Amino acid sequence: MAISMLSLPKPTILPSLRNPQRTPIFLPKCTSSPSTSLPEQTQQDHSPCISHGRRRLIEVAMGLLAFPLFSVSEANATRIEYYATVGEKLCDMNFAKSGLGFCDVLVGTGTQPPRGELINIHYTARFADGTVFDSSYKRGRPLTMRIGVGKVLPGLDQGIMGGGGVPPMLAGGKRKLMIPPLLAYGPEPAGCFSGDCNIPANATLLYDILYLGLYK
């Protein structure tokens, strides 16, 4: 399971999408070889027979051929959405007193996120040089998180729920955020494992946020 870098504690992640059930492929089994003592016509009446070993190889081969059909289609759709967020031009940032930069690429038409509720978002997260370090699009599912109660980065709470001069996002809206270190991970590196850290100290983070709405 991929780990999101959005939150200070680990955020709640939606369950992975399950592949639809595939109808099993059945091939005739061999129970015994036709007796050589039977008349020729009787032998011809037997159904076609495939040895167990050969039957198993054919099942495996057919399964491998059928497996990518769903996964490739889903991955292509996710990849298109992901690169669309990376390729969006930067808009003119407004800055709140907290230092948070924000601008709306698309103003939503739905409801704003209530404090303390679970919401769904898609996002792409980058460093100031444009390097992508995390994205819900690449995982193929939105992120579910609790907004406004300190469960995610302060810059995300303010940037999505609003406050301090920042208007709240509305469902269906897209917003870019420039989160300064004090509203992100601060002077300490984050996402560290065996001495390697995904987020350097004092990093300014850029987020492309799509607010999908309340978690249902």
Any overview of this molecule?
Its EC number is 5.2.1.8. GO terms for molecular function: peptidyl-prolyl cis-trans isomerase activity. The structure is a single chain. With 216 residues, the chain is an alpha+beta fold. It is globular and about 45 Å long. The longest helix has 20 residues, at 68-87. It has helices at residues 40-44, 52-66, 68-87, 136-139, 154-161, and strands at 94-95, 101-106, 118-127, 132-135, 143-146, 174-179, 190-193, 196-199, 205-214. The chain is built from 5 helices and 9 strands; from the N terminus they run H-H-H-E-E-E-E-H-E-H-E-E-E-E. 24% of the residues lie in helices and 23% in strands. The two termini are 21 Å apart.
